[in-house]
């Protein structure tokens, strides 16, 4: 009995559902035949059910749009910026190299004797201020390291406008005692005033002779021992620790005197020129040794 009554009780609900469904279908069919509901006028409603692939495509498109905002500058502009940065870096590095080279010049000049410094600076066309600064650096003792460092930096700033090739050549020629190379670098400028300057330099050393005969005697003994290859004299000089001097320059001056003397003894050709070279070479070595003796006893 219950099985019979339950369907009868639910009949009104089913009847209402079927009626509404049939009415909706009839409405749709009738409206689809209307020209206002034709396919040309029907807008396709957007679908809010996005597939995973569609989502990924939209995401990638938005990412591409963001990347385009962060995309690099045009090629010409980026290359121009990189070139300017590279030039800036090169100029800074070049300035640092020039500054270090000028300080190295100052340190080399301070190892030479006063006449040698004058000759180098005269050929390099520097001011009197440079010579005075170098002489001040020479007077500073080895215990004044910070003061010497600052003085060398100051001299380096004064020497930055000097021709690098010329200054390197002059310093190296002076170290080697190569008068021929020095004259080739100096050209006519040195030869025109060389005699006058040598007279001035001789006068300076004559004054030194009057003031310190002990230094002269010591320098002469060193001179004879070095030129004649006396081992004891060589050890005595090169083992000096009280004075800071350029041993390589001294060896070059000694070799120059020895080679010119040997050349004079083997050949009579150009005897006048050889004698002049011998005098100049011996004078350079003598000045170096006298200056060394003076520093040792000061």
UniProtKB/TrEMBL annotation:
Alphabetized InterPro entries for the sequence: DarP, DarP_sf
Pfam family, one: DarP
Record region (Disordered): 65-99, 187-211
Taxonomic superkingdom: Eukaryota
Start-end of Acidic residues biased regions: 192-211
Protein known as: Uncharacterized protein
Organism placement in taxonomy: Eukaryota, Viridiplantae, Streptophyta, Embryophyta, Tracheophyta
Gene name tied to this protein: LOC101264926
């Amino acid at each position: 009995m219950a099985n019979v009554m339950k369907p009868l009780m639910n009949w009104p609900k089913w009847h209402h559902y079927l009626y509404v469904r049939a009415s909706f279908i009839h409405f749709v069919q009738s409206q689809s035949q209307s020209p206002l509901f034709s396919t040309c006028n029907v807008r396709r409603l957007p679908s809010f059910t996005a597939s995973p692939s569609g989502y990924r495509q939209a995401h990638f498109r938005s990412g591409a749009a963001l990347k385009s905002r962060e995309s690099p500058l045009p090629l010409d502009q980026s290359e121009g910026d990189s070139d300017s940065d590279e030039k800036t870096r090169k100029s800074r590095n070049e300035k640092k190299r020039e500054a270090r080279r000028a300080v190295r010049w100052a340190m080399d000049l301070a190892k030479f004797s006063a006449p040698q410094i004058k000759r180098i600076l005269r050929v390099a066309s520097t001011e009197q201020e440079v010579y005075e600064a170098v002489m001040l650096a020479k007077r500073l003792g080895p215990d004044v390291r910070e003061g010497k460092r600052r003085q060398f930096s100051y001299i380096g700033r004064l020497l930055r406008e000097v021709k690098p090739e010329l200054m390197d050549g002059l310093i190296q020629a002076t170290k080697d005692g190569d008068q021929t190379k020095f004259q080739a670098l100096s050209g006519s400028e040195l030869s025109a005033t060389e005699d006058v300057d040598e007279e001035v330099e001789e006068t300076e050393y004559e004054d030194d002779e009057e003031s310190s005969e002990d230094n002269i005697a010591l320098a002469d003994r060193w001179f004879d021992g070095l030129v004649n290859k006396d081992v004891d004299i060589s050890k005595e000089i090169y083992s000096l620790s009280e004075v800071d001097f350029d041993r390589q320059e001294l060896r070059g001056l000694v070799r120059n005197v020895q080679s010119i003397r040997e050349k004079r003894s083997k050949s009579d050709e150009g005897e006048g020129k050889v004698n002049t070279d011998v005098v100049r070479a011996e004078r350079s070595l003598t000045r170096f040794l006298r200056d060394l003796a003076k520093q040792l006893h000061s």
